[in-house]
């Protein structure tokens, strides 16, 4: 009798347990550790990103100038979208456990000291959200963000000095020589996008007064040795030793110099993280801005989308930036380009090229990350032309596609093979 009395009780317990399990499955409760993937398509899209800050960092004769202009979350430009909507996906990203600006800059300083040896990094895995580069509309929105970084500054003088106070009567204007970063933040202040301005030059059909500084940094970053291509050229550093021979340590110090763009990008990142210490940070840019974004993303392990950037792998190696111990196809640095762009493809070189005639020694072609390339030559019959490097035609091109290109690891790429570095 006692045994038979327990059967209904056990059955009831089993039914209750089954109902609880079914309810939990229906709710899709998250498990501890990895980020859960949402079942709802709308959940992939972050709340709209709006312009919150613009950083203006001086270079060349004004390397200590660093200013910020703030905008309210309700700010809306006269032209353009009120907010940018992008999709994201969860991703486990391998990056350095200690990567605060002080730690990273100490490491970068050490790599340039005499007798420096390879550093054994302490790597860790972080579960974060990254841009969904398979989503067509997301890539287009990122391209628009990078286009906005070229737009002339708003009226007004309400700049906040972040470095040495600067006498504005000295003539350093909104778009004078220096690096500019537009900072977009979502509604919850949980994700920040740093969009870095690219090259301004008549050669690339873009406006602005940063031409001379942009050209110096282009020639420093993407040439084999200080833009030393002939005796008729003015070099951008004194690292040339003899015929096809360059001083490696000299190059490394020149890239990291206080008055150059990489150093300025580090300062912008430091100030963004001071404003948003717990935010997930993404980086984006076009052309030179894309390369700077990739270098900054490589430094701190940040998801990065670079549009039509020249090959920046050589600069990343010269700066001794950390490459995580992961298969290359797991990289979160995505290079978006098209086959009709000679700068992205690394073929705008040689004495008859448009780049060389314009004073740009673009000698690199290798990207450090994944390449996501639209085959505009094969599929659209485009001719290779410098006009296919500009961001606005690229946005139109991307909108004409229904899909995004497959992102692949670059194969068999070598820069400056005929040079010796000592």
Automatic annotation (TrEMBL):
UniProt-recorded name of the protein: Putative lipase ATG15
Biological role stated in the UniProt entry: Lipase which is essential for lysis of subvacuolar cytoplasm to vacuole targeted bodies and intravacuolar autophagic bodies. Involved in the lysis of intravacuolar multivesicular body (MVB) vesicles. The intravacuolar membrane disintegration by ATG15 is critical to life span extension.
Assembly and binders: Binds to both phosphatidylinositol (PI) and phosphatidylinositol 3,5-bisphosphate (PIP2).
Enzyme class: hydrolase
Enzyme Commission (EC) number: 3.1.1.3
Topology in membrane: Single-pass type II membrane protein
Reaction(s) the record says it catalyses: a triacylglycerol + H2O = a diacylglycerol + a fatty acid + H(+)
Keyword Ribosomal protein: no
InterPro entries for this protein: AB_hydrolase_fold, ATG15_Lipase, Fungal_lipase-type
SUPFAM superfamilies: alpha/beta-Hydrolases
Keywords: Autophagy, Endosome, Glycoprotein, Hydrolase, Lipid degradation, Lipid metabolism, Membrane, Signal, Signal-anchor, Transmembrane, Transmembrane helix
CDD domains: Lipase_3
Family: Belongs to the AB hydrolase superfamily. Lipase family.
Signal peptide range in chain numbering: 1-26
């Amino acid at each position: 009798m006692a045994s038979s009395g327990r059967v209904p009780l056990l059955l009831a317990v089993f039914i209750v347990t089954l109902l609880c399990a079914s309810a939990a499955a229906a709710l899709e409760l998250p498990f501890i550790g990895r980020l859960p993937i949402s079942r709802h398509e709308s959940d992939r899209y972050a709340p709209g990103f709006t312009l919150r800050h613009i950083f203006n960092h001086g270079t060349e004769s004004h390397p200590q100038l660093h200013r910020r202009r703030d905008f309210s979350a309700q700010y809306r430009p006269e032209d353009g979208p009120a907010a940018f909507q992008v999709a994201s996906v969860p991703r486990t990203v391998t990056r350095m456990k200690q990567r605060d600006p002080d730690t990273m800059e100490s490491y970068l300083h050490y790599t340039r000291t005499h007798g420096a040896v390879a550093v054994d990094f302490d790597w860790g895995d972080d579960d974060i959200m990254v841009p969904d580069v398979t989503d067509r509309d997301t890539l287009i929105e990122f391209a628009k963000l990078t286009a906005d970084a070229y737009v002339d500054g708003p009226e007004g003088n309400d700049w906040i000095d972040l470095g040495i106070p600067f006498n504005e009567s000295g003539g350093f204007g909104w778009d004078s020589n220096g690096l500019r970063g537009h900072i977009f933040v979502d509604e919850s202040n949980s994700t920040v996008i740093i969009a870095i301005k690219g090259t301004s030059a008549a050669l690339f059909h873009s406006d602005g007064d940063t031409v001379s500084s942009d050209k110096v940094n282009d020639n420093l970053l993407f040439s084999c040795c200080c833009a030393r291509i002939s005796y008729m050229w003015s070099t951008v550093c004194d690292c040339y030793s003899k015929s096809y021979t360059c001083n490696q340590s000299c190059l490394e110090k020149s890239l990291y110099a206080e008055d150059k763009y990489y150093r300025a990008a580090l300062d912008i990142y430091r100030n963004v993280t001071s404003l948003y210490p717990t935010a997930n940070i993404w980086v984006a840019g076009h052309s030179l801005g894309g390369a700077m974004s990739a270098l900054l993303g490589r430094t701190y392990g940040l998801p990065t989308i670079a549009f039509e950037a020249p090959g920046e792998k050589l600069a990343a190696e010269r700066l001794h930036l950390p490459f995580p111990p992961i298969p290359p196809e797991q990289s979160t640095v995505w290079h978006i380009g098209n086959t009709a762009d000679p700068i992205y493809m690394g073929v705008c070189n040689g004495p008859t090229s448009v780049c060389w005639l314009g004073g740009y020694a673009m000698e690199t072609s290798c990207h450090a990350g994944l390449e996501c390339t639209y085959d505009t030559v094969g599929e659209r019959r485009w001719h290779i032309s410098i006009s296919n490097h500009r961001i606005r035609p690229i946005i139109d091109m991307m909108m004409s596609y229904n899909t995004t290109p497959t992102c692949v690891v670059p194969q068999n790429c070598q820069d400056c093979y005929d040079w010796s570095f000592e």
